[in-house]
Amino acid sequence: STTAYNTNRFYSNEFAKCLKQILDKKNFDIILFEGLFVCPYLDIVKENSNAKVVLRSHNVESDIWKGIANQEKNLIKKLYLNLLQKRLLNYEKSIVSKMDAIICISDNDASWMHTQTDKSISVIPFTINTLNQEVGIENKNTIFHIGSMDWQANLDGINWFLSEVFSLVNQKKEEVVLHLAGSKMPNDIKNIANENIIIAGEVENAKTFMQKHNLMIVPLLNGSGIRIKILEAMAIGKTIISTSIGASGIYYQDKKNILIADTAEQFANQIIWCLENPLESKNIGENAHLNIRAYYDAEKISEQLDSVLNKLLDS
After folding, report:
1. Whole-number Å distance between alpha carbons of 125 and 216
2. For the chain, which terminus, N or C, has the lower number of CB atoms within 10 Å?
């Protein structure tokens, strides 16, 4: 096939049929595509509606897969990943050209979009409802990660953390326990569970899971867009240790409302520092909560979205 497997795998004939029925019954001014992976339905929308079409881009997906391919050591896998990346890049370019407007959630992604189209491009971050957020609740000496483990970037990051970072932490802090949560947890990770590594797998409530534990780790080595789980953890006052790539696209100040670490030694040292300096670490989490209220409040950002969409209708 010459088409992009990354997007084709989400296509459903049943969903396409339901979508067409809705478009036959109702007229819409704007139809917003929430991420690249619903864009296989773009042709059905255009064939059955005169609405303006808008892509709300979560990531530059092809850029993520380019990073994954570059990290791969196995030559055969690298060739295959490069093939997937090129097909995805071509698909992404074609979709961008067909949209009436693009809304990105980070400045970095918007810069790439500007190289692909002269259509209207706006940057409107992901939003968090900052009302009634419980801040605090933590088990000491615990670190945690939560994310879908069928996303290759998450898998690569956790494998790097387990092989390069966690042993450095346990050398100085034997009592530290790592909790791993997320859907599609692979068996090779499940099989390493021990008294210091707890595999929670898919959890019923992500927020409840995050509230139970102390430090959040985001050891991403590839990515684009915004890590939504970082914003959700910030909103409940969690102290977060992330790579620069993991925190990319987020408004933050290193050492004030997040901790950035890009090597195994830096990552381990930041974890140990937080555990040895609980008051200072807690202060970083409290500042993270204030950061969300300042930059990602849902009410403020929904007004920005409303303005962008109304301008599109008036154009």
Report:
1. 21
2. N
Rounded CA separation 84/1 (Å)? 11
Q: Are 214 and 278 in contact (CB under 8 A)?
A: no
What values do phi and psi take at 116, rounded to 5? -110, -20
- CA–CA dist 274, 145 (Å, integer): 16
Q: What is the CA radius of gyration of the chain?
A: 21
Structure tokens at 238: 């969690």
Burial class (CB in 10 A: 0-12, 13-18, 19+), 146: buried
Q: Which residues contact 59 (CB under 8 A, 6 or more apart)?
A: 36, 109, 223, 224, 225
Phi-psi region of 150 (alpha: psi -120 to 50; beta: other; left: phi over 0): alpha
Q: Parallel, antiparallel, or unpaired for β 120-123 and 259-260?
A: unpaired
Q: In 10 A of CB 187, how many CB atoms? A: 6
Helix ranges (DSSP H) in the chain = 5-8, 13-25, 42-48, 61-71, 75-98, 107-114, 152-160, 166-172, 187-190, 206-212, 228-235, 264-276, 278-295, 298-314
Nearest to 168 by CA among 274, 276, 266, 280: 266
CB–CB of 120/99 below 8 Å?
A: no
226: exposed, middle or buried (Cβ count in 10 Å: 0-12, 13-18, 19+): buried
Distance CA(238)–CA(288), nearest Å, equals 7
> Which has the closest alpha carbon to 244: 273, 268, 215, 223?
223
Residue 232 corresponds to which tokens in the numbers above?
Answer: 């959700």
Which stretches of the chain score pLDDT less than 50? Answer: none
CA 247 to chain centre: 10
The 10s digit of each residue's pLDDT in 222-245 is 876 678 899 999 999 999 999 999
Burial class of 16 by CB neighbour count within 10 A (0 to 12, 13 to 18, 19+): middle
Q: Does the pTM exceed 0.85?
A: no
